[in-house]
């Protein structure tokens, strides 16, 4: 059930089914669907069949995706039969972009509007998800390279609130584009071990969405596939990989790819300065043939028994 708390915020109660969770990208994909649904409901746009002024299909693509949690409740916590409360707020970034903030908690109590300071502090017992999306269309028919910005004609956004500049996701995206990492070396984080390079071929039977684009949630799966190779190289088991707790994951999407494209994933581990309870992993995805950067992702993983 979904309800509007105001004209820019939605609250929903969701029962978790098998196709919405697991040790894969299913839950990340489900959150993305909630973003599309919120934009459709609050911005007057049919996001599933959106078209630009020239009549060409345009898609609400993911540019930046961040999900933060805790040891108590993280990306892979939701499982069969759980009921969650999702509060979603939209924010204005002009005619070509939109930001959705999701607060996801085990269902209890009454609906509470989003509080930005609480959201960005992330101190509650829930997941705090940022989806920064851009409207795009194909620059060349039949190709997933060279997507260009293109808004649908009926996209309404001026009624949405502005986000305080201190929370602007463009700052994080700029770091990802220029430094190919979200790791803040100014905090004293240091690389640990050699960088691993592994190749992944975009699978036509698994990785594309219904309109033939490399599905945004597939990037999560490719990142995890590459991370598992480094994980094994550290002498760790599959069981420990499944049991890992990712409390922060940032992913910036910089390009799309066609089926059969060979993606080189570069993976490096970092040590968190002064904190033995966590480690960071940075993953860069590139088109092996052209060197084009497709995505940058940094994960923060809890280790040991720290809270």
TrEMBL record:
Pfam families reported in the protein's UniProt record: LnmK_N_HDF
Gene3D superfamilies attached to this UniProt entry: Hotdog Thioesterase
Domain of life (superkingdom): Bacteria
Annotated LnmK N-terminal domain residues: 12-182
InterPro entries: HotDog_dom_sf, LnmK-like_bifun_acyl/decarbox, LnmK_N_HDF
UniProt xrefs under NCBIfam families: LnmK_bifunc (TIGR04098)
UniProt protein name: LnmK N-terminal domain-containing protein
Organism field: Dactylosporangium matsuzakiense
Lineage of the species this protein comes from: Bacteria, Bacillati, Actinomycetota, Actinomycetes, Micromonosporales
């Amino acid at each position: 059930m979904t309800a509007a708390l105001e004209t820019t915020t939605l609250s929903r109660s969701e029962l978790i089914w098998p196709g919405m969770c697991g040790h894969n990208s299913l839950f990340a994909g489900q959150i993305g669907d909630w973003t599309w649904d919120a934009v459709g409901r609050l911005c007057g746009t049919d996001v599933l069949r959106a078209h630009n002024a020239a009549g060409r299909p345009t898609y609400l693509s993911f540019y930046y995706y961040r999900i933060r949690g805790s040891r108590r409740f993280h990306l892979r916590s939701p499982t069969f039969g759980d009921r969650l409360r999702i509060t979603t707020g939209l924010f204005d970034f002009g005619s070509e972009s939109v930001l959705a903030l999701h607060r996801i908690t085990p269902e209890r109590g009454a609906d509470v509007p989003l509080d930005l300071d609480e959201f960005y502090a992330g101190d509650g017992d829930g997941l705090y998800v940022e989806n920064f999306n851009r409207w795009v269309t194909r620059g060349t028919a039949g190709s997933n390279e060279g997507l260009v910005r293109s808004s649908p004609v009926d996209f309404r956004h001026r009624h949405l609130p502005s986000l305080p500049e201190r929370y602007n996701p463009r700052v994080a995206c700029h770091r990802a584009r220029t430094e190919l990492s979200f790791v803040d070396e100014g905090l004293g984080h240091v690389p640990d071990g050699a960088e691993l390079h592994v190749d992944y071929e975009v699978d036509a039977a698994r990785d594309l969405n219904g309109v033939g684009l490399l599905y945004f949630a597939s990037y999560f799966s490719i990142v995890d596939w590459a991370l598992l190779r480094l994980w094994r190289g550290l002498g760790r088991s599959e069981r420990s990989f499944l049991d890992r707790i990712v409390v922060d994951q940032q992913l910036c999407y910089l390009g799309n790819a066609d089926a059969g494209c060979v993606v080189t994933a570069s993976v490096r581990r970092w040590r968190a300065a002064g904190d033995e309870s966590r480690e960071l992993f940075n993953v860069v995805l590139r088109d092996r043939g052209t060197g084009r950067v497709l995505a940058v992702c940094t994960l923060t993983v809890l280790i040991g028994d720290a809270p």
